[in-house]
Amino acid sequence: MSDDFTPDQKRYLEGFMSGMQSARTARGLAPLGSGAGSAASAPAGPDKEHLAAQARTVAAGGKLSDPEKWKAAEHPFDAYARFKTQAESGAYPKPDDNFRWRYHGLFYVAPAQNSYMCRLRIPNGILTHWQFAGVADLAERLGGGYAHVTTRANLQVREITAENAPGFIEGLSDLGLTAKGSGADNIRNVTGSATAGIDPLELLDTRPHARAWHHHILNDRSLYGLPRKFNVAFDGAGSIATLEDTNDIGFQAVEVIEGASFEAQPVAPGIWYRLALGGITGHKDLARDTGVIVAPSDAVAVADAVIRIFTANANRADRNKARLKYILDDWGFDRFLTAVEEKLGRRLVRIDAAFVAPRPAYDRLAHVGVHRQAQPGLNWIGVALPVGKLTVAQMRVIAAIARDCGDGDIRLTVWQNLLISGVPDARIDDVLANLQAAGLSAETSALRAGLIACTGATGCKFAAAHTKEDALAIAAHCEPRMTLEQPVNIHLTGCHNSCAQHYIGDIGLIGAKVPVNEEGDTVPGYDVYVGGGYGVDGGIARAFREKIKAEEAPAVVEAILQVWQGHRAAPEESFVAFARRHDIEALRALVAQTGEAA
């Protein structure tokens, strides 16, 4: 038994391990640990860090959450044969297996849809034209015939039947893609700058670092089964915001100027990553600057160390408090970073912020339209997608365009759209014409460019409103009534998981059940927030109005935007600056005066 445990803890550990062994034996599984599975054996093998953390929770008198029990009883990667047998019978999973199959990227989403949704892993959001076309083929043959681009620059495919689920994820592997670890308590899709390597503005190409972290995760089982999900993003300071400050770990490219030092030693000037930690916008927090800078070549090692400290110390009993933010809130940054340094075996470099040059300003419309690349004569073309949805026919057209008119890559963005890169000047018109023929466009309004919506009640059992449909209704209502000279971000999310990140929107709407009578009947609707932002405008939106019916949302959004347009301090005043210049009661009064939201 490890000397890390007190005698009392060892006795608790023996009981905990014995209980887990019994659960595994009931499934016909091999015992945990070493030494012929003795109940007194300390955890061993690739899952030992997680099992030890679970045991410490029990030893301290805590009660493991159900997912922690499920992980200990049978690791999802040990259950693939059972998953295939279950699928062959056409059976859908019970809660424990629904959790386990998410390790393979499959989410059983009943009652919204009696089928699976599959979420992929696409490091830095970039895939080839033939991979994109291959996903379209899989979605047509084994799914619902469409795909969604997500806010992690990823793809989701829905309406996959139980019988088709193994074929779908195995088909991804045949394409050189994977869905492994894209759900449940794992490190989610690795995001990076959408224009990495082609952006004249960027400080750093994030592709090699996102790719290295992606493969580091895939090839280390101990990085699965964390206390909760974990997000990591790399931002190269390019034209398109990566929203790295909404992640648990945000690596932000910065230029360190001459004169910086750490512990009396000079720090080399050049491009580094600044380390930000603790972003989780659904819990009203953005990642905070730690004062640490990281050599790009060291990013994977630092991320790994952060994950190890999180794994050992996060809450295994209360899943609402199991994210990195809560360790940081409890410990403080200094204690946490000291633990990371101990894990690394070396000091982290800290410098005064005065030696960090201002980062280039991002362009809030760079993800749509035609834009010059760093490479002479080439362009990226941002394709506007209606709240992220693509039919398989449209996917095949985009794949053909990327193959014939671009460099062959398709780049997904966190703004629920995609870029076709490497388009020569002479082929721009061809691309635009082909997009138009497919019912798509590289042009859109300033409002639609920033319109973000999660799956909503159409495909998610947690959502209280049909977010994608309601988002399009807001655009259809507002566009004929106003012309916005500046971009504005409107985020609609269906529940408090905040997949559409409503707290960072200029205007954020979160699904709510709206009472309509004294008998307790409800209809879909929203709570409305204003004044959120990211990057240099980072901040959490403030509550503006509660429980409006879904059909009222377009008029309410219009009224808010009309007030901004009519009461700006100057034509160039952004919505977020306007909203933060007023207290909420003043804003409510101004909006009420329009008569639209009364």
Architecture overview:
- The protein is of the alpha+beta class and 598 residues long.
- Helices cover 33% and strands 19% of the residues.
- The chain has 18 helices and 23 strands.
- The strands form 5 sheets. Strands 6-7-8-11-12-13 form a 6-stranded mixed β-sheet. The protein has a 5-stranded antiparallel β-sheet with strand order 1-2-5-4-16.
- α3 (66-73) packs across α5 (95-101), α6 runs antiparallel to α7 and α16 crosses α18 (584-593).
- The radius of gyration is 25 Å and the shape is globular.
Instruction: Give the CA-CA distance, first to last residue.
Output: 67 Å
- Percent helix, as a range, is 25-40%
Count of DSSP H/I helices: 18
| Percentage beta strand | 15-25%
Taken from the alpha-carbon principal axes, the silhouette is: globular
Rg, Cα atoms, Å: 25 Å
Q: How many beta strands in the DSSP annotation?
A: 23
Kindly report the spatial arrangement of strands forming the biggest sheet: 6-7-8-11-12-13
Low-confidence stretches: 34-40
Main β sheet profile: 6 strands, mixed
**Residue-averaged pLDDT:** 93
Structural class comes to alpha+beta
Summarize this entry quickly.
The chain has 598 residues and is α+β, with helices and mostly antiparallel strands. It is built from 18 helices and 23 strands.
